[in-house]
Amino acid sequence: MLIFARQVHGILYPSIRLAPIRGLQPIYGLIQIFLFGILYGPLGEELGWRGFALPRLQRQLGALFGSLVLGVIWAAWHLPLHLIPELKWAVGNIPLIWFFLLNIPWTVLFSWLYNNTKGSVLLAILFHASVNFSMGILRFTSPKFYPTITIVFWAAALLVIVIFGPRKLSRKDVDLAFYTDDVLKSQ
Q1: Does residue 129 fall inside a structural domain?
Q2: 1 part of a folded domain
Q3: What percent helix, strand, coil does the chain show, rounded to 5?
Q4: CA distance 170 to 117
Q5: 7 in a domain, yes or no?
Q6: Under a CB-based contact definition with an 8 Å cutoff, are residues 57 and 70 in contact?
Q7: Number of H helices, E strands in the chain
Q8: Pairwise CA distance, residues 179 & 137, whole Å
Q9: Which residues of the chain are modeled with pLDDT < 70?
Q10: What ranges make up the beta strands (E) of 119-163?
Q11: How many domains does the chain have?
Q12: How far is CA 153 from the centre of its chain?
């Protein structure tokens, strides 16, 4: 999706060039960066967001509204990184408003992935790391690129909602309570 967004950007804004992707490190360097990227944020975040919060929010609010609430909470979680200049790199130097606007469709896509993999937090971690990694590698440095990538992710999220339905974000008959029932019964 990010490569597609980069291509769309080139069509919409031919006079504004993104930083070229040159001089990529050897594959082992990229693997190290990806693995560090998993440990740096996605591992801890996804255990909390998808492993704990999402099942409970979905149980109470349904998949779409639970995802929207979680998207706002997830974006707010990153607020300190935007407010401290020395830490802006940790959110890819994406301006605050665009980061918030991107978090909502990302959360819908993450919920769709989670619900269609029987609650796989591992896949959510890998997807989160892939988004972070791709954003860094594709070097989205033009401020005019943020609207394009935001539109692409919103379009993908809306497509998921239309195709899979807002109640479960899944074609499967997913029992949203399934993920928390065992935990609640043991308490």
Answers
A1: yes
A2: no
A3: 75, 0, 25
A4: 10
A5: no
A6: yes
A7: 10, 0
A8: 34
A9: 1-37, 136-142, 174-187
A10: none
A11: 1
A12: 9
What domain range includes position 30?
Answer: 26-185
Residue 96's alpha-carbon distances to 26, 84, 132, 154, 173, in angstroms, are 32, 12, 16, 17, 37
The three-class DSSP label of residue 165 is coil
Look up tokens 């291509």; give the residue.
7
What gap in Å lies between CA 35 and CA 115, rounded to an integer? 25
Decide: 115 and 63 in contact? Cβ < 8 Å: yes
Query: Does any domain span residue 6?
Result: no
Under the phi-then-psi rule, with left for phi > 0, alpha for psi from -120 to 50, and beta for the rest, what region is 10?
Answer: alpha
* Amino acid in position 151: I
The letter for the amino acid at 58 is Q
65-68: long-range contacts, CB 8 A cutoff, minimum separation 24: 65/166, 66/111, 67/107, 67/108, 67/110, 67/111, 67/169, 68/104, 68/107, 68/108
